[in-house]
């Protein structure tokens, strides 16, 4: 591939400081409709019965599948480098989102 073709295929992605800080999440809730997947990221604190969704990502089914594949590949590379990630048992958390809705 020529150098000019490579330059045309590059995407310039900006990351501002606030977004770069990230948001901690220890719970992900995933819902879907026929046209989209909705990923809600929550931070639950021990002993506190209420938590808020900190971030929501809405994806097409095709992008959700690509994300699943990308996360799987990255977990594999991490485990090759650092060893198996142990999956500890988590207590079930009763979730109450109020009335159920559709996207």
From TrEMBL:
UniProt-listed Pfam families: DUF3467
This protein's name: DUF3467 domain-containing protein
Taxonomic superkingdom: Bacteria
Annotated organism of origin: Flavobacterium xinjiangense
